């Protein structure tokens, strides 16, 4: 009889363990699902907050970058250097035109003249583009032109006549 009671007790213990497992695993799955859902909601809320505040943050970053001392110095130095390079290239166009006039069939003279004109126009385009950029244009030296056009013979990328 004691053996039978031990078997019954054993069967009851197995039933209890099985019942505990059947009720615990779904509970863990439910808690895991709730945890994942809460994390998803938090991540979504953070993302939505970043999206909603991005215009203000972007504007603030723009002002901070624009007013940075290194940006101011770099922009001013770049405009001065670029302007002087344009003037120098314009003077070299005059020299190349004179050399081409002396030797109109010379391949080197034609290539040099055309290359200088193209390079000068590239530099003028870069100057004008930088002058309109929000982070650089306002730091141009006031003594320099706002835009370079062909009204000034020292920066028109053409030979002087």
Describe it for me?
This protein has 161 residues and is mostly helical. It has 2 domains: 1-66; 69-139. It is 78% helix and 0% strand. It has helices at residues 2-66, 69-102, 107-132. The longest helix is centred in the N-terminal third of the chain and has 65 residues, at 2-66. The relative contact order is 0.09. The mean pLDDT is 87.
Distance between the termini: 128 Å
Mind summarizing the main beta sheet?
none
The total count of strands amounts to 0
Residues in helix, %: over 70%
Give the DSSP E fraction (strand runs of 2 or more residues).
Answer: under 5%
Q: Spell the H/E element sequence.
A: HHH
Total number of distinct structural domains: 2
Task: Output the structural class.
Answer: mainly alpha
Morphology call: rod-shaped
> From the alpha-carbon coordinates, what is the Rg to the nearest angstrom?
39 Å
Tally of alpha and pi helices = 3
| Low-pLDDT sequence parts | none
Q: For the residues shown, what is the average pLDDT?
A: 87
Descriptive tags:
single chain; 161 residues; mainly alpha; 3 helices; 78% helix; 0% strand; rod-shaped
Question: How does the SSE layout of this entry go?
Answer:
Blueprint: H1 2-66, H2 69-102, H3 107-132
Helix pairs in contact: 2-3
């Amino acid at each position: 009889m004691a053996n039978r009671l031990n078997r019954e007790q054993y069967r009851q213990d197995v039933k209890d363990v099985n019942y505990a497992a059947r009720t615990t695993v779904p509970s863990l799955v439910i808690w895991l699902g709730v945890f994942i859902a809460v994390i998803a909601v938090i991540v979504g809320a953070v993302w939505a907050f970043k999206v909603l505040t991005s215009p203000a943050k972007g504007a603030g970053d723009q002002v901070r970058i624009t007013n940075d001392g290194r940006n101011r110095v770099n922009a001013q130095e770049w405009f001065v250097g670029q302007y002087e390079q344009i003037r120098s290239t314009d003077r070299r166009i005059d020299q190349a035109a004179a050399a081409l006039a002396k030797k109109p069939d010379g391949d080197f003279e034609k290539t040099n003249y055309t290359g200088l004109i193209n390079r000068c126009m590239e530099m003028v385009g870069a100057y004008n583009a930088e002058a309109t950029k929000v982070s650089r244009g306002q730091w141009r030296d006031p003594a320099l032109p706002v835009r370079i056009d062909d009204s000034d013979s020292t920066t028109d990328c053409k030979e002087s006549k």
